[in-house]
Each structure stands twice: as C-alpha cells, then as structure tokens.
Amino acid sequence: MKNSEEKIFEITKSEQWHLDHPGKLSPVYSNMQTVERNGRKCYRFDFPNTLSDYTVGVLKETRFTEIPFHYHTDMEMNYIYSGSCTFVINGKEVTMTQGDICILDADVVHHAAYKEASDIVFNIVFTKAFFKAKFVNWIGKQGLLGKFIVSAISESHSHDKYLIFHTAPSKQELFASNRLESVLDLLIQEHFYPSLYSGELLEHYLSIVFLLLIHSITTDAEEYFRDNKENQIIVTVLDYLEKNYYKDSCRLQNIADTLHFSESHLYQLIKKGTGITFSQLKIKQQMLQAALLLKTTNLPVLSIAEEVGCKNRTYFYEKFKEVYQMTPAEYRGEDQG
Fold this sequence. Notes:
337 residues, Jelly Rolls, transcription
C-alpha cells in the first residue's frame, strides 16, 4: 500500500514494551474496568477518544502478546491484513487468515491469541447506529430474491452476535475481492495519514466495505445452493416474481408448469422455503415496488397501483397498509415531516 506498508509493520511503543516484557500483561489494563462473564474476568474496552468526533475509528491491534478476554462498548470489525490470528469468541475458537473479516456486536466477549511480527490485525470500530443505518438497512432494501439469498447465505456467516466473512476469492470473485481489499487499504491509509476530511472518508470507505460484503453474500448464492435443490427452486420462483409481479399472467400454476411441478407441490415448497405463500410473496413484491415508486417518482398513487398490477384501488390501499402500517400518502410524506 502506497506510503503505508512501512508504517503498518513498524513496531509501536506498546509492541516494544511487550517485546521487552514477554508474557506480561500491559500496565494499561490496570486502569480498565472489568466485569465477570461466565466465571471469567473480562476487560471493558471503550473508545471515547477514537469515536469522539466521528462514527468510525481505526486501531492496529498490538502484536507480541495475547489480548485477554474483553468486550467493546461499540461494534468492531476485525480485518486480517496480513498473516493470521486465532480468536476465542463466545467460547468458540475461530482462526482467521489474510483477507478475512469478522464483525462483532458490542458486548461480545472475545480473546485474541499471540500475534507474530507478520500477523497484522486492524480493529475498525464504529457505532451501532452507523452499522444499522448502513449494513442492516441496505439488506432490508433488497427485493424478494435478494432478501431470500441474504437470509439463506448469512446463516453460514452468522453466529451469536458476530459475522465472519472468509474473503479468499474464487476465480469468479477475484475482482470483487480485490475491490474490497483496495477500499480497506484506502481506509487504513487514511488512518495513518489523515486528511482534512478523514472522518467523512472513513465513514464512506466503511460504507463501501459493507456494500461489498453484502455483494459477497448474494454472489455466493450459486455455490451455496448447488447442493440444495429446494432453495434453487425458491430462487427461480422469486426471480420469476420479480420479473412478472405486475402481470395478470403471474400465477402459481404458470411457474409450476414451467418447472414441471404440480401446483400443490410447488405451493408446499414455497411455503416451506419462505414461510409464506406464492400469493403473499406476489403482494410483497408489488408493495415493495409501489413503495419505491412513491419515494422516487411524482406519479399519482392510483397510477402507481396500476403500475404494480393492482387494478382495484381499495385492494391496493388495504394491502399497502398491511405491509407498511400506513397509507401510501403517509409513506410518501414520511421523510418530509
């Protein structure tokens, strides 16, 4: 990384202290608050200075020592820049290697093993409000197909209040992986060489990282569903719905015929895979599109209803309120109040 590689591997004062006092706990811990969790003393890591002015901060984790069991008052992302590191998170041992990322919620107890000179780990700390506004809300804005894929794939990433992303790329994902690494490099460089707009840049870089992680989840779908035929069928149905939801011909029988299933069998597969029926999924897709048009266009409500395939005004208003707990007019004016 331009201008930063030497800085990244430079021995810090804290690391030099540990080299001079092997096996000893840093004096810094004597001033930290502790709590007992599951019969174990845990340190409380707080970052009042790091997050005093901005919602994102960056720290390089100290090498040549273990990081004892602790928890953070804010959320954090551990990024393995180089080498590897073994963590114990909620009692489970997790080894991460170069390029891997772990997002931990506040209050998750974890421990980091001893790191050698080549093991570089960055802690990117951020507020819970920032994470919700970016990562969680962006996932919530996915269409039916995107939401289903994110939900299904994220089961393999998520644990008890933490998410792990092994970003070693396949051939297909090499470009996306390189983009993620490049953005993280920019974020780290901004940390070491701050500019006038560092706070804003760190927030924007981390926002892009979140988007690329969401992208990595959704593009894992083909690999994840390779041995899961039922989920492959659900993906086909949801793709059909997203492309045809506004048409009168968008019916369960038609997609069942295309897939060579009986209507009743496909009905059961959809209900099992999504928790709701084909008709309910169609309504959700219609209302998702209607909500988008309400926010992004000046089309009259009745025109939007027709656009999404709802010819009956009363039916449209009823279904929209069921989904969003407000009328279309209230939804459109929500951001203006």
